[in-house]
Specification:
By secondary structure, the chain is of the alpha/beta class. The protein contains eleven helices and eleven strands.
């Protein structure tokens, strides 16, 4: 059994699911998802995390939840002679996912924010990650507009806890106006008829500070809270993409399998880390 410990918002949960999905296939075993850390409001408050909920139910995946017994058994098995279980922690480098003994259980701790972890199963993963929840009428209208536009391009501006939460701000930082100016110019040079669809958790700030970059854009403002996944659904319909340093829009771009498209992403994803999570065929600024 592979147990993937979930933490963070929808984008991070997708990375953790994708890593576990790939590893379970490699080991020819089942994947289970642990939600105890994710749903602990006490721990979120103690460590100054943004409280989160399980959001993978937006997709047509049917993995079982890991029980506390499953987690405890795996931890115990990793300590016994013969080590038939492994606790796999994310490091700054790719782990060697090969095991010298017949491993029965693996507990995965980390965010696993790289396509390299699951590139070999990308097609199978995309088949799993199809949206299953019903769409709102407003989302359907925007979806029709995106599909009808031959050069629909989404722009994602992430603020939210990147502004209000000190830990998040110091870790992630913010993509500024210069980044979006350069990204929009890059797209327009290659796609003169680009139509921009703007997604943000702070649209009033975007209109005030960035509105001049895309004056005729469509601002998607109706999805929030438990309906935020519908923004990702709309993003993956777009032909081209400008993502923020956010795992949410990373997946909004990645879920579209088209290869003849332009995706722009920030080169500096984290404030004090050089870790690169951008796929090689995306353009970084």
């Amino acid at each position: 059994m592979v147990i993937s410990i979930l933490a963070g918002g929808l984008g991070n949960q997708l990375f953790q699911y994708a890593f576990g999905f790939s590893l379970a296939r490699q080991l020819n075993t089942e994947l289970r998802l642990d939600r105890h850390l994710l749903e602990s409001q006490w721990l979120a408050k103690l460590r100054n995390y943004t409280p989160r909920t399980y959001e993978l139910d937006a997709f047509a995946i049917a993995q079982q939840s890991a029980s506390l017994y499953d987690v405890a058994r795996t931890i115990g098995g990793s300590l016994l002679p013969g080590r038939r279980a492994v606790i796999l922690r994310e490091t700054n480098s790719m782990p060697l996912l090969t095991f010298g003994a017949p491993i029965q259980d693996v507990l995965c701790l980390g965010y696993w924010q790289s396509e390299d972890y699951f590139k070999t199963v990308a097609n199978a993963l995309r088949q799993q990650l199809t949206f299953q929840k019903p769409l709102s009428d407003q989302t359907r209208l925007v979806a029709d507009a995106i599909v009808d536009h031959p050069a629909a391009t989404f722009v994602h501006i992430r603020r939210g806890d990147y502004v209000t939460n000190t830990n998040a701000s110091q870790h992630h930082g913010l993509c500024g106006k210069l980044y979006y100016q350069q990204a929009v110019n890059y797209i327009r040079e290659r796609v003169p008829n680009a139509g921009f669809f703007v997604f943000s958790d702070d649209q009033s700030w975007v209109k005030r500070e960035l509105g001049d970059l895309f004056p005729s854009a469509t601002y998607v403002e109706h999805n929030s809270g438990i309906d935020s996944w519908q923004d990702m659904y709309l993003m993956q319909l777009c032909r081209h993409a400008i993502v923020a340093n956010s795992s949410f829009s990373w997946w909004g771009a990645w879920l579209n399998p088209a290869t003849d498209r332009f995706v722009v992403a920030p080169r500096q994803w984290f404030v004090n880390q050089s870790k690169q999570i951008i796929p090689s065929h995306w353009h970084s600024i």
